[in-house]
Design brief:
The complex is a heterodimer of chains A (283) and B (166). Helices cover 35% and strands 28% of the residues of chain A. Chain A has 2 helices and 12 strands. In chain A, helix 1 packs parallel to helix 2. With 166 residues, chain B is mainly alpha-helical. Chain B is 74% helix and 0% strand. Chain B contains 7 helices and no strands. In chain B, helix 2 packs across helix 6. The longest helix of chain B is centred in the middle third of the chain and has 25 residues. Classes of the chains: A alpha+beta (283), B mainly alpha (166). At the A-B interface, helix 1 and helix 2 of A face helix 1, helix 3, helix 4 and helix 5 of B.
């Protein structure tokens, strides 16, 4: 074996050994150091690239948009007047809802507060697993904060995932389609608590449905009031397929299509200021 | 000089991979720019450098992942070593060879990533048929362009020197 080949084998063995140690001992010192170094090395790079690209991309668009703003402004003023009437109606309904809730002893719904963030990075190896947003602890983001996104029809907001890692200016979000994700949920009109589990695909699985439950295709699924992580009543998705009982299983399961486009998320709403001490979200 | 150029190439490669992930994803299938650059660079630069390049590119891919930290670093280092070993047996200047090589390496990368996930007992579903078909084909088609870019960047003289001497 010549010298060049020997050196090549040595160099390969060195890098392969470091990689293997990181893989096999993810909680080991070397893996933690490598993770920290990679995070501090690459996060600012991605963050700044994202900002720079946004500015460059927006230049011609901004110029074109200026021309449309006048028209849109007029239209928005008109819509704003109409919205005031709708708001008055909503406030009246909210008041009625609060009054009825007090009568039956329900706790009042909390208003979600949070920040909008843009996706700056996605996990290339597992597209449906996680992503990074440009909001960190300076923006009030905390670990296990629920993350919402605008639904595919653009009408409402629905659950997208939960924050698993927070840095100064960025956070990593585990999507509901990740294999490690589990969300306690209930089926609309049934009131049954089930579990929404990720499968690494666009659709998620709804498990632990009682055998006697009549699952309707098209029924919507919401986060359950018993969830340890998520506020109740967040829309998750709708049932697109109900599976038959499998073998000796004592539960049914179904396939749920999330209301958000998991594969094409660009902007996310991170809920902030929720109660401390919540746990769960990961299997 | 070759180190400085390779470092510049690494920065450019990461930038391209990030941009591709943002703009070129087709139903979850993304061109593996980091893999392409690793393969292309390994065909022309010394072994240690191509291993380091593959390792750092892999680390970049791993940093954005929640699971299996180190898997991409291992796979890209292995890909770099494999190409470095093969470069004396294959005509790396032919676009067809470049395309087929990148197609094979990226298919292998996808499958091995899954099996390494089983090895470290991480829950991981097998890549969808779409990804398994689309990503290697995308990479195969892009390969000649990446090789040509690296050629323009002045990193191919050494390999030509090798061919002449052998």
């Amino acid at each position: 074996m010549n010298k060049e080949k020997r050196l090549a084998n040595l160099s390969f063995a060195f890098f392969a050994a470091i990689s293997l140690i990181c893989m096999v001992l993810p909680a080991g010192v070397l893996a933690r150091v490598a993770k920290a170094v990679s995070y501090y090395l690459f996060t600012p790079f991605v963050y700044e690239s994202h900002n720079a690209a946004g500015k460059v991309e927006n230049l011609p668009r901004t110029a074109a948009l200026l021309l449309q703003i006048e028209d849109e402004n007029r239209q928005l003023r008109r819509e704003n007047r109409e919205a005031k009437i709708v708001r008055a109606q909503i406030e009246s309904l909210l008041e009625e809802n609060r009054r009825l809730g007090d009568m039956v002893g329900l706790s009042p719904e909390k208003q979600w507060k949070g920040v909008w963030g843009r996706v700056i990075e996605r996990d290339r190896s597992r597209w449906m697993s996680s992503l990074t947003v440009d909001r960190g602890y300076v923006d009030g983001v905390s670990k296990q904060a629920p993350v919402l996104a605008v639904s595919t029809d653009g009408v409402t907001a629905a659950l997208a995932g939960t924050v698993v890692d927070v840095e100064r200016n960025s956070s990593r979000v585990m999507l509901i389609s990740d294999e490690m994700s589990a969300v306690t949920a209930y089926i609309e009109s049934k009131g049954l608590d089930c579990l929404v589990e990720g499968r690494g695909r666009q659709t998620v699985r709804l498990s632990y449905i009682p055998l006697d439950a009549n699952v309707d295709v098209g029924a919507r699924v919401f986060t359950s009031p018993t969830s340890a992580v998520f506020p109740p009543g967040i829309l998750i998705g709708r049932i697109i397929r109900a599976y038959q009982r499998e073998g000796t299983s004592v539960f049914l399961s179904a396939e749920v299509e999330p209301y958000v486009n998991i594969g094409g998320l660009k902007e996310l709403f991170i809920v902030t200021g929720l109660q401390k001490g919540r746990t769960g979200g990961q299997k | 000089m070759i180190f400085i150029r390779s470092f510049a190439m690494l920065i450019f490669c990461i930038l391209c991979q990030w941009w591709a992930g943002e703009h070129l994803s087709v139903f979850g299938a993304v061109p593996g720019v980091a893999l392409l650059f690793t393969v292309a660079l390994s065909a022309f630069v010394p072994a240690g450098l191509c291993h380091l390049f593959g390792f750092l590119c892999g680390l970049y891919l791993d940093f954005s992942s929640l699971h299996q930290f180190g898997t991409n670093a291992l796979l890209l280092t292995t890909a770099a070593h494999l190409v470095w070993l093969l470069r004396r047996r294959l005509d790396m200047t032919a676009p067809f060879t470049q395309g087929v090589l990148c197609l094979g390496v990226s298919a292998g990368h996808l499958i091995l990533y899954y099996f390494l996930g089983l090895f470290v007992r991480e829950p991981h579903s097998f890549p969808t048929l779409w990804r398994l078909l689309a990503e290697p084909v995308m990479n195969g088609l892009l390969a000649p362009f990446v090789f040509a870019f690296i050629g323009r960047f002045g990193l191919v003289e050494r390999q030509q020197g090798f061919s002449a001497s052998e």
